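User: I'm curious whether this sequence folds into something compact or stays loose and floppy. Could you predict its structure so I can see for myself?
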Amino acid sequence: MSHWIIAPVLLPGLLAAFIVLVARFHRDIQRTVSLGGAVALLVISLALFVNASDGTLTLYQLGDWAAPFGIVLVADRLSTTMLLLTSVLSLSVLMYAIGTNWDERGRHFHALFQFQLMGINGAFLTGDVFNLFVFFEVLLIASYGLMIHGGGAKRMKAGTQYVLYNLLGSTLFLFALGTIYAETGTLNMADLAQRVAAISPDESSGIRVAAVLLIIVFGIKAAIAPVHFWLPSSYSEAPGPVAALFAIMTKVGAYAILRIYTLVFPADAPLFEGLHGAWLMPLGLVGLVIGMIGVLGAWKLDRLIAFSVIGSMGMVTIAISIFTEAGITAGLYYIVHSTLATAALFMIADFVLTHRGGAGLRLYASTPIRGNAMLAGLFFAAAIAMTGLPPLSGFIGKLLILDAAYSTDLVVWAWAAILGSSLVAVVGFARAGTIVFWKSRQIAGEMQDDPRSEQDNVDSKPDYPSAPLKALPLVAIGGLVALIGVHTALAGPATAFFRATAQQLQSPEPYISIVLDTEGKEIKEGGNALGYKKDDHSGEEGALAGEDAADAPAVEEGGN
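Assistant: Here's the prediction. I'll summarize afterward.
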């Protein structure tokens, strides 16, 4: 199984190179290769997820170089969950892009799409902070190409803003990496965890600065207030399927916070007490309020959804900022929910754009949409999930976050912000859905005098009347909405799994042990003891110290 860890990074990279070099001018081949790769990635991610679901930690050493000198990939519950979520999302987005012919508006859509997956998957799997930076840059470059796909002045302007903000984050990331290396002499996460723990309080100023710089960097990636300004224009001006794929982008920042600040800079360590946990909660509350106010004030459907992303990331930030088992569990459940709901909403918005005549996504009554009842039903379900109304997963996720926040000092503020913002979100989404799907009328001459009727992008306004609905895009949207239902129905098992994931994050000793002490092994958790059996040419056997070495689980060897 250990060899398969590299596949989610290697497969999309090879497919992207193949598409550019061999199938550059052959659209059907690009579609076949890209869609086949997405299906293969889903199967591989599911296999890795199942392998890690019992607590197994699997290590892959590139070039057979042991850590901390070599590059390592590590698969655990958290990373494989994010891999599986990414693969499900990528398959749905590809189906939508092909069904709506979005991939025909630029020659390199599929290559950039695969490079984007390579960067995202690499960020989830890497066990090295520097390579986390490298994969951040890979996904940044690919996402910029995807964002300006199809052209348009507003799209180019938003793309430039997006790149500038993220380059600022990359610069701060490099500063943080330089500081960390100067203080510790390593960038391997497991090695960092040991060396940072050995730093005395009198010599901790440099590493504390690095910890703050990293939280700012990850906050930019996750669009946490007050460094969220790049997101509304970037997501709303991006092509529909690209914006749907970007639903996982902010979660990369949230994942990095969970990984680094439970492994390297734990919030409960005396050295970092109050350094990030104390102000992440207030920033999450601010982001939640800003996002929902934006939902209420938006006059275009795509901007409304973009602001809801800011609000959802505020919810995630509130959950993970608690840094308790309950908080991380709630945050992980909400991450899966919000990713599915956001992607579905952006696809629905793009469908509305191409079937609503000249009104596009502006929130005022316009021409009726063909297949209005079906599209309205999908929007209704996704909006209920996004706003947190019962009975869907958004409601369950918010209940989990409210319960986790009960033990914090800001419980009153957290409950007030979450409940109040939910009401505002309901009003905003209800207003948008009512205008777009119910208050339909034929376009009259007065629309030409409306300053908001100016064409947003070169390819935004379809020919009038609207085209008939296509099946494949509806299948892609319906699949995501169905998965929201599955996430709701399986809330009990999902919560139990995320609770086990939180426990694994808060007990990083097995992670550190497999990265630094074993070579190409798999370690399984078992009770309060942890052990491994090491087979080498001399037949020696060793075991890690535990409460009972005889009861310690065995390590499964996998060559590299």
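Summary: The chain is about 65% helix and 0% strand. Strands lie at 57-61, 72-75, 521-523, 556-557.
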